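In keeping with the milestone schedule agreed at the kick-off meeting, the structural modelling team has produced records for the first pair of proteins. Each record is given below as a sequence line and a structure-token line. The laboratory manager (R.T.) confirmed that both were archived under the project's standard naming scheme.
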Amino acid sequence: MTTTANGFSTVSAESTAKSTDAMDSHAENRAPQVSIVVPTFHEAANIPTLCERLFNALAACNIDAELIVVDDNSRDGTIEAVAELALRFPIRIIVRETERGLSSAVVAGFKAARANVLVCMDADLSHPPERVPDLVKPVTQGEIDFCVGSRYVVGAGIEESWGALRVLNSNIATWLARPLTELRDPMAGFFCTTKAVFDRACEKGLTPLGYKIGLEIAVRGQVQRTREVAIQFSDRHSGTSKLGIRQQIEYLIQLAFLYAHHRPAALIFGSVIFCAILAGIAQFFV
């Protein structure tokens, strides 16, 4: 493990083995086609399965990729699990010892990526690794700039274990973001884009707040050519969800920033309506 200038710690295949059958010395020096970034916090139980399924799917489609795990200093064995997997797969880890949060973790991973095509996905296996090649292909071929693993297009689905409240919460959050993008699933955390789009989003004031970094990059990166690939969204394979009230409040703040950037008139109108609703509610307590 080494510490970088920005204070992050990194573990890679190079630090755990001089060479392996899966990654020869020539491959180590060659930039991959795709960089896949996975933010983690206490995902030791999921990372090995994710790795196996992901690299099997990539190998079947002859896609050369690296996996970058960005971990918020887990104490459950995630870091050790990645170090062991690095003996067999092109995987490395960035351990953040002070900063926290999913969106900022993805940004850190994208900045460290060696490829020009970038993928973001969750570690909990809610995003099917077998669909990564379908997201990557149209982007690498230059057909589009942003591809989403979508829950809301023909052929997609959500695991039946989702309760009514969770479905309602997701639908409301999606509806609030719809004016900002043409994507039917703007909340998707499973997406593929290019380094050029990411760099443009950074230039336009990318704000890694909350957990909907895909929406942030799509809006600030001004993507025009998009596509949605149907996926079957599953509940996490192991562990517990990190989504709570704090993350939902951060999402509302993120939306306010994006509306101010993309549709300032809509933000003003929405603020007036919101204040009017609050005023109406207040009448019952006066």
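The second protein of the pair:
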Amino acid sequence: MCAVRSILSAKEPTWGAELGDLRSRLTVHCRDDALGRWTVAWCRPRPALEPYVATLWYGEGEVRYQRDRILPSACSHLLINLGPTQYLVEPGPPERRIPFVDVWYSGLHQIPVDTEAPLGNALLGVALRASGGRPWLHTDADLLANRVLPLADVLGDGVLALRERLLEARGIEARFDLVERWMVTRLDSRHRVHASVCSALQRIESCGGRLTVEELARESGISRKRLSRLFRCQTGLTPKALARVLRFKSAIGLLTKVERVPWVELAAHCGYYDQSHLIRDFRAFSGYAPGEFLRHARPDGDSMVVR
């Protein structure tokens, strides 16, 4: 049986009212199969963070494969390592394995990211909405797009104190509460997202990327060039690039629901001009053609096993 209790608070009477409310926002899932044994807790964000945060999560356990590939997902991520060293793998030649030991930030990506956790993992993450980074990082998102870097490089070494407090906290509820409080204190209205970007994001996400930049610009009432510039500054990607990521995400989501894949129909359903455009995006975002992609195990909806 998975150790669900081990990642939760051991003494319920010590909770404050807010931690009790936090537990009502938690979902816990266990997995034990050929891919590994782990427990993951997801937490819906508190109301003050909902415009910026998609979910908070904590994963603990070990995998039975060497390397996984994180796929572009239209989210950026705050990543806090609370366990053994993990590795970011930069493609070569020569290939480089970069140790991840403390607090990192991963911006919006149009390329996959390979990672390894040879000694197991205990990792707390915050999945941020496409425009969720700038209001608390206080820097333009395009400077961090397609990058994974130590958060101290952006905010200074003071962020490492957050990790130390998390290591001392008892239970995942207390850890989620600490991270939420820290993020709320960093929100700055001077870095709020432009209204045109907000409305364009809502449109792109609601239709799974199946619309043109011309349509977005017409609806927003500003030029395509200005919209793309604002969008890239405040999310990290252009509207066209984010729409491509969302179409790909929609396609891989549908792949898990069918036994036989009708590729032409899938391409049309997800808004691709034709099957060749679907194949192009699979290669760009996963490194594999669609048929090859299906032969790889999937630990979750946003990753695949590559070794």
